Amino acid sequence: MAIPEYSIPDARFRGLSEAEVKASRETWGRNLLTYHEGRAWAILKSVLLDPMMILLMIACSIYFFTGKPNEGVIMAVALAFIAAISIYQSFRTERAMKVLSKLSQPYSRVIRDGRKISIPSEELVKGDIMIVSEGEQVTADAEIVEYNDISVDESLLTGESVPVAKDMLANKLFCGTTVTSGLAHARVTATGNNTRLGQLGISMERTKRGKTPLEEQVGVFVRRMALLGLSTFAVVAIINAIKTSSWVTGLLEGLTLAMALIPEEIPVAFTTFMSLGAYRMIKIKVLVKQPQTVEALGAATVICADKTGTITENRMKVQELYDVRRWQQADMQTNRREAEEIMLYARLASEPIPFDPMEKAIIQSFDDMKLSAGNYKLVKEYPLAGHPPFMTHVYSDTEGRRIITCKGAPEGIIINSLLTEEQKQKVRAIQEEMAGKGNRVLAIAVSDFALPELPSSQEEFKWRLLGLLALSDPPKKNIAEVIRQFYTAGIKVKMITGDYPQTAMGIAKQIGMEKPERCISGEEISSMDDKKLAGIVDDFNIFARVQPEIKLKIINAMRANGEVVAMTGDGVNDGPALKAAHIGIAMGERGSEVARQAASIVLVNEDLKSMADAVALGRKIYSNLKKAIQYIITIHVPILSFVVVPLLLNWQYPSLFKPVHIIFLELIMGPTCSIVYENEPMEEALMMQKPRKFASNFFSWRELSLSLLQGCIVAVGLLSILFFCIQHSVNPDRTRTFVFSSLIFSNILLTITGRSKTNTILTTIRYRNHLLTYMILLQLLFLFIFIGWGPMQQIFSFVAIPPHFYLIAFSVSFLTVFWIELFKPVMKKWGLQKT
User: Fold this and answer.
1) pLDDT, averaged across the chain
2) Residue of 456, 480, 555, 639 with fewest CB within 10 Å of its CB?
């Protein structure tokens, strides 16, 4: 069927050649909005202003000013090393974010050398012929050269929310705007910073986001500890300066205590876990656009899934036809003429260049029947609208005769049909029977409207119903298993669809959804207030004939009930609901650009199995982050005790550790918590637990108290070694070496026992994590280098100690750390600890 208005582009739209593309890019640059905000300087500034870095610089300066260059050099090297690690981690995070940004950028369809291709939007150049259609974002400034019923949302630039109709006079398209209806070919006139968006300095990347509950909790905790550390530094420095009559000694003692108190590894661990977590999800075909979404994934309590393309294969096929005029099935064998007539008008009511799977199926069936639509010209199009929706096309033939045809939801069409009430009821019964098989049912109708001027709304036509057309769309092969995985993980599954209730319930039964008979329609929901909907929303798993505004209402009702909602969407109008959900999920290929921009996650392969894998990965990341921070809290307790207890009790060696010792421990703890624990595998029990509460405290008092108890027991064991040395007059350097070795052993053993809160080492030893082995060996290597090599002995005030001292140190560490292994089975049984 030839429809000149938007047939295959003619020679005018051959597009640029490769040579012309290259020349244009060299002249005008890439299609990128660039803002020079000094990211490198910003990262360096944040590292230098970190409280721990400030303390290190003070300590380093004191050593140099007091004639202790060796200690000063060690501190300077350590300071540079820590700064390098922090900067590396920041740039690593930055690189991961750039990869995510690159993957999440929109694609554009262009014509080059006479071929239609899809390219990343940054590769657009001035002069390209760009194709834009409903749901897509305009990614460069352009002028329309051919169009069909196109309107554009320009609110990003103008603030006006009403779409603007475009034609050959009002033919300007602007970067950042969104096509709300129609299709157009447009020649690119400006790219990158030369676009109106670029000149206005508007960039989505510059928009600051709010912090998540976990970010707030971590930030508050670290700020409080930093403030406490700096305050303690001042108090202890003054007290020691008065007691020793040496301000240098006072400053060093105060610095040691402050450094032992500030858990500066926590924000580094948090940033690393979230950024690398988002990066890891790319491997399972899940694009997480913002790393903080990783935090929400592990807490999801409800998955709201669209039916078509998410639960089903989105491979529609015309299954059966029903001739309403003769009240019988229509097929090519028994009543060929009626079947051909229904298919002809279904084809005419479809877009000439289809993008909807239903229309593609109709056209495929039409072509398979070897039918011809004749030479009709499309004169007016009424886009998909109404509740329930349908669409209308008006054609004229070569003799000027008018043909008006529509297709859509039977309920919407029969309201204005010429059928009697009895006939309408009969049609509804037939529709229900066809839909009960899991089919999607469309009504096909024509109108005999005779007035010269067409009405403004398709609802003003009176329809002569021709027949019903059923399309099958089978469930995906793996969807039943995916649904089961969600249920096992304590996550509810809701189907939200625009389809007919019987169709939705038929599919729900096939895939094993709970309560498949519990279905509520969008019309029923629209009459409810928010409070009433919140009261009943949990009782239904299927929401049918749902319009976008109703979908938003459902999401808000679930949120009001305390649910953490993940929702799939692909349409232009799904944007508000995707934003309202805690986790908005767009489809990688069939999803509109509006949906992809509004969503926080894009399923690249459009497989809900990837979402189940993402939830598992989100839970793993959150669990490992919790282990890392519990480790940090636990190991800081004995470090702090060595600084505080001897000072308060006025022991013989009140200042056994100096800043140089603390900094070495910091160099060990940082990589352990942010690299080793991040690499830990997921424990199987995670996906058999109920989702955690999203807004709950990161640590319960029970978990925090257990970490503090572990730390206190380790501290008692190590302080007992110190007390033993004092009682037996062991010299300070030997005592320091003895105690420091015990602390390193304790740190290694805490790392091992912290790998699981419920499984003992008999299980965790089988977990694969090569980084843990490397980190343990590295700690032991550095310990024995510092103790056995002369220059390092002098700097750290270490001396060689006999072998039995190491045996005692390890034994004490083992007893004070590994007691927790005996209690893990008990705590698991009583539910005192979660994985």
Assistant:
1) 80
2) 456
Q: Which residue intervals of 303-420 are DSSP H helices?
A: 336-348, 357-368, 410-414
Query: 12: closest CA among 183, 195, 144?
Result: 144
CA atoms within 13 A on the CB side of 519: 22
**pLDDT digit string (tens) for 703-733?**
778 888 999 999 999 999 988 888 888 888 8
DSSP lists the bridge partners of residue 492 as 302
* Residue 208: per-residue pLDDT: 44
The pLDDT-based confidence of 445 (bands split at 50, 70, 90) is very high
- Name the nearest CA neighbour of 250 among 229, 235, 272: 235
**Do residues 195 and 174 lie in contact, with contact meaning Cβ atoms separated by under 8 Å?**
yes
Give how far Cα 243 sits from Cα of 247, 474, 645, 652, Å.
10, 82, 17, 14
pTM of the predicted structure, to 2 decimals: 0.71
Residues 6+ apart with CB under 8 A from 40: none
**Contacts of 65 by beta carbon, 8 Å cutoff, 6+ apart:** none
The sheet that has 328-330: what strands, in order across it? 328-330, 317-323, 463-472, 440-447, 402-408, 390-396, 377-385
Q: Which residues pair with 143 in a beta bridge?
A: 172, 187
Extended strands (E) in 545-643: 565-569, 583-587, 601-603
| Residue among 340, 89, 268 at smallest CA distance from 632 | 268
- Look at residue 105 and tell me whether its pLDDT is greater than 50: yes
Q: Which amino acid is at 520?
A: I
Contacts of 355 (CB under 8 A, 6+ apart): 133, 134
Q: What is the pLDDT of residue 630?
A: 86
590 three-class SS? coil
Confidence band, pLDDT 50/70/90 cuts, at residue 207: very low
Q: What is the C-alpha separation between 364 and 377, in angstroms, rounded? A: 21
List all residues 6 or more positions away from 524 whose beta carbon is below 8 Å from its beta carbon: none
Residue 185 tokens read as 């070919």
Structure tokens belonging to residue 218: 């971590």
Q: What gap in Å lies between CA 133 and CA 156, rounded to an integer?
A: 18
Is residue 62 within 8 A of residue 252, CB to CB? The reply is yes
Contact 2, 353 (CB under 8 A): no
Q: Following DSSP, what letter does each residue of 259-318 receive, concatenated?
A: HHH--THHHHHHHHHHHHHHHHHGGGTEEESSTTHHHHHTT--EEEE-IIIIIB----EE
